[in-house]
Amino acid sequence: MNLKLREIRISKGISVPKLVELSGVPRRTIQDIEKRGDCMLSTAYQIACALNVSLSEIYYEDNAED
């Protein structure tokens, strides 16, 4: 599974600094998540809450066509 954090953040018009403020997740962590596409579940939950989306909305399967 990978996170589609960047796509959701941009679609909501939220900058990285604003997401840091809303979620309490460090800027470097958010940047790393957007680059790698994965993170700890607890961090994903914090970010999902800050973006007002469910965990299932920010995760997508690697093999979506299966």
Automatic annotation (TrEMBL):
- All copies of the HTH cro/C1-type domain together span 5-58
Q: Which InterPro entries match?
A: Cro/C1-type_HTH (IPR001387), Lambda_DNA-bd_dom_sf (IPR010982)
Q: What SMART domains does the database record attribute to this sequence?
A: HTH_XRE
* GO molecular function terms listed in the Swiss-Prot or TrEMBL record: DNA binding
Instruction: Look up the signal peptide feature and give its range.
Output: none
Name of the molecule in the record: Helix-turn-helix transcriptional regulator
Give the originating organism: Massiliimalia timonensis
